[in-house]
Design brief:
275 residues, Ribonuclease iii, N-terminal Endonuclease Domain, Chain A, Double Stranded RNA Binding Domain, three-stranded antiparallel beta sheet, two-stranded antiparallel ribbon, 5 strands
Length: 275
């Protein structure tokens, strides 16, 4: 029927109160009584390799703040507190893993690899790999933003999930979870590659005496919870690239990437002409 029904089940009990809501989206049916949600242990174990002991930690880790807006209960909390703890645990566990894995690496290299592993893009990829989006409790609008590329929900939920594993199973369990589902899922060679296109464009532009790139936000559209920014980068008064993203930083990176590709193409054409 609906996708999440195979991951969650809930039971209606006789109650004297009126349910706070009963909403359906194209993605799943949201439970009327969140305290009756039971995570499918086998599905969770299949995707993550972790066996749940206390479901309460994981229920909270899976509740996005948008879900609470649909409820009348003041007792429920979102996953934001667990996200706070998970961020700290995740940074430590990744640092420890890299410290022992790359025994001869300098501090600068270790810091660079760690920053690549704990940044939003890596967390989103890891979240999708374990099908975390199928377990989350979201409002219909947040579900829509997730489907259209809003990454923060998944990244934050992954951090909250790390905290839940840590509280539920302890240090060794969290260590194994992070090793299995994050650090060993990425090619460390690609992680050391510089994907800061703004930095690359600045170095390239200065090396060729083109001047300093200037970034301008030319458009901002979409709803508040899922905006789309368009940024243009120009050098010497000439536009070299445009980028789009859920925030200005991402749009600037995309614009810089496009500019670098244009520069490389122009240089290649000049080389062919001269040869």
């Amino acid at each position: 029927m609906l996708r999440l029904l195979r991951l969650f089940f809930w039971r209606r009990k006789d109650r004297s109160v009126t349910p706070a809501f009963e909403v359906k989206s194209s993605r799943h049916a949201l439970p009327v009584y969140p305290d009756e949600v039971v995570i499918d242990d086998e599905s969770f174990y299949h995707y993550t390799g972790y066996r749940i002991r206390n479901q309460n930690y994981f229920k909270q880790a899976l509740i996005h703040r948008s879900y609470l807006q649909l409820l009348e209960s003041a007792n429920l909390k979102s996953n934001e507190r667990l996200e706070f703890l998970g961020d700290a645990v995740l940074n430590f566990l990744v640092a420890e893993h890299l410290f022992y894995r790359f025994r001869d690496a300098a501090e600068g290299k270790l810091t660079k690899i760690r920053s690549q592993l704990v940044k939003r893009k890596a967390l989103v990829e890891s979240a999708r790999r374990i099908h975390l989006q199928e377990f989350l409790l979201l409002s219909p609008s947040a579900t829509q933003s997730l489907n259209t590329g809003s990454y923060s929900i998944l990244a934050d939920a992954f951090e909250a999930l790390v905290a839940a594993v840590y509280l539920d199973g302890g240090y060794q369990a969290a260590r194994e979870f992070v090793r299995r589902n994050l650090v060993e899922a990425f090619d460390t060679t690609s992680l050391t590659r510089d994907d800061n296109f703004k930095s690359q464009l600045l170095e390239f532009s200065q090396a060729h005496s083109f001047g300093i790139p200037k970034y301008e936000t030319v458009k901002e559209e979409g709803p508040d919870h899922n905006p789309v920014f368009t940024v243009e980068v120009s050098i010497g008064g000439v536009s070299w690239g445009r980028g789009h993203g859920p925030n200005k930083k991402a749009a600037e990176q995309q614009a810089a990437h496009q500019a670098l590709e244009r520069f490389e193409k122009d240089l290649a054409q000049k080389d062919n002409t001269q040869s």
